[in-house]
Design brief:
Distance between the termini: 32 Å
Protein name: tRNA-2-methylthio-N(6)-dimethylallyladenosine synthase
Mean pLDDT: 89
Enzyme class: transferase
Bound molecules: 5'-deoxyadenosine, iron/sulfur cluster
Organism: Tanticharoenia sakaeratensis NBRC 103193
Number of strands: 20
Cofactor: [4Fe-4S] cluster
Radius of gyration: 23 Å
Number of domains: 3
CATH architecture of the largest domain: Alpha-Beta Horseshoe
CATH class of the largest domain: Alpha Beta
EC number: 2.8.4.3
CATH topology of the largest domain: pyruvate-formate lyase- activating enzyme
Length: about 475
């Protein structure tokens, strides 16, 4: 996913004391959240979001390191930004260039060696120090690098979220947990995001309440390993994701709760029960499995078997029969044979996924799998990925087709492209278009699905009146 956050160009850029900030975001939803928080942290310094790097006094490239050619992508984007900076310099305008995120964490020194024109390199744990880094870079006239894993928690030092307070923001991300101690063989996250840490319950609840007060109706709780959440409550006891969702469910006006990304190993009984007990918890779960072969799951250090995954899914579906699943798959992990790959295909057939993300294994330097024997040739990875994606596409089409004729609650979030049309989100995150009044925006209304398009659904309102 690639997005620019945020996108609006303020009228106030004509105000000389304000400075333009352009943030380019690559990677996961946590990066989207982080980009919004970096914007928040720079606001008191007079930075306001602008749409184009050409208008920006500071550009932040928030990077992702999870898969292939991450660093190369960064250097090519930096080359482009360098030209923008040179053009601005001709008009006497300076541009601070910052690289943030996981590539910055993993390759900080390399970035400054290969792109010495970069002013600031900062890892995901040091965003709260950004204002200081901007000041230091300006003062010293030389690059500042901060890829620490500081003892203080950045959340304690960040200002209150502004990002979710823009009128019309009905859905928001909220990071509750970061980092990972699982050390899957292929994954850089434990190295770039550091050890698993959870935000205290009070801090999460305060942010959620603020979001809801500003109009947010749906919150997605974020964490690299979100169901490993164990933030402390006021009594100093460790909470769980299930108990946190119980607390969140009690916030009036918060209609929908989601969480991502979870690990099958940390799906406990209480979490399964929460899916049945809490209507706000949406029946759509992203639960990465990576492979359906026990041998490969072991090599990946995933800590569970394929049957254990099947059993977790069965128990969840028992509590919430309308639960739909999404997952991540990797083909061509070192050592993967045809038989292993077939076991993954079988698991997909057994479970049935509404959506999925699938990747060819890419070697990440420093991870255990990178040096493992029996790397799988590229052509075999290609073939397996194609077969896997064809099956997943079939399942996704079948899932969408099955929705036609059914009635689902839709949270309306904005106007559609056609006049008279409004658009919202199904429980399964599909965009749904209907003919309806803009007054329904912000409300959840039952919609009968009448048609499926390539990336969205169409429907009709079951009742004109809003139910919230
Ligand atoms: N190669 C391919 N895919 C990877 N992922 C993580 N690391 C790698 C890698 N080295 C995928 C996993 C993970 C998702 C976010 O990215 O499927 O769940
Ligand atoms: Fe990476 Fe595994 Fe941790 Fe997920 S659980 S972030 S794949 S190490």
């Amino acid at each position: 996913m690639t997005s620019s956050v945020p996108v609006s160009r303020p009228d106030s850029t004509s105000d000389r004391s304000l400075k333009g900030l352009h943030v380019i975001t690559w990677g996961c939803q946590m990066n989207v959240y982080d980009s919004a928080r970096m914007t928040d942290v720079l606001r008191p310094l007079g930075f306001v979001p602008v749409d184009r790097p050409e208008d920006a006094d500071m550009v932040i490239l928030n990077t992702c390191h999870i898969r292939d050619r991450a660093a190369e992508k960064v250097f090519s984007e930096l080359g482009r930004l360098r030209k923008v900076r040179e053009a601005r310099a001709k008009d006497g305008r300076g541009t601070v260039l910052a690289v943030a995120g996981c590539v910055a964490q993993a390759e900080g020194a390399e970035i400054l060696a290969r792109a010495p024109y970069v002013d600031i390199v900062l890892g995901p744990q040091t965003y709260h120090r950004l204002p200081e880094m901007v000041a230091r870079a300006a003062r010293a006239g030389q690059a500042v690098i901060d890829t620490d894993f500081p003892a203080e928690q950045k959340f304690d030092f960040l200002p209150e979220t502004q990002a979710a307070q823009t009128p019309g923001n009905l859905t928001a991300f909220l990071t509750i947990q970061e980092g990972c101690d699982k050390f899957c063989s292929f994954c850089v996250v434990p190295y770039t995001r550091g050890a698993e840490t959870s935000r205290p319950v009070a801090s999460v609840m305060a942010e959620a309440r603020r979001m809801v007060r500003s109009g947010v109706r749906e919150i997605t709780l974020l964490g690299q390993n979100v169901n490993a959440y164990h933030g402390l409550d006021d009594a100093g006891e460790a909470a769980t994701l299930a108990s946190l969702m119980h607390d969140l469910s009690a916030i009036p006006g918060l209609e929908r709760i989601r969480y991502t990304t979870s690990h099958p190993r940390d799906v406990d009984d209480a979490l399964i029960a929460a899916h049945g007990d809490l209507p706000a918890v949406m029946p759509f779960l992203h639960l990465p499995v990576q492979s359906g072969s026990d041998r490969i799951l072991k090599a990946m250090n995933r800590g569970h078997t394929a049957d254990e995954y099947r059993s977790v899914v069965a128990r969840l579906r028992e509590k919430r029969p309308d639960l739909a699943l999404s997952s991540d798959f990797i083909v061509g992990h070192p050592g993967e044979t045809e038989e292993d790959f077939e076991a993954t295909m079988q698991l997909i057939r057994d479970i049935g996924f509404a959506q999925a993300f699938s990747f060819k294994y890419s070697s990440r330097p420093g991870t255990p799998a990178a040096g493992a024997p029996m790397q799988v040739p590229e052509e075999i990875k290609d073939r397996r990925l194609q077969a896997l994606q064809a099956l997943l596409r079939e399942q996704q089409d079948a899932f969408n087709a099955d929705l036609v004729g059914r009635t689902v609650p839709v949270l309306f979030t904005g106007t559609g492209r056609k006049p008279g049309q409004i658009v919202g989100r199904s429980p399964y995150l599909q965009p749904v278009h209907v003919d309806g009044s803009v007054e329904l925006i912000g409300h959840t209304v039952d919609v009968r699905i009448t048609q499926r398009n390539s990336n969205s659904l169409g429907g009709v309102l079951v009742q004109e009146r809003a139910c919230a």
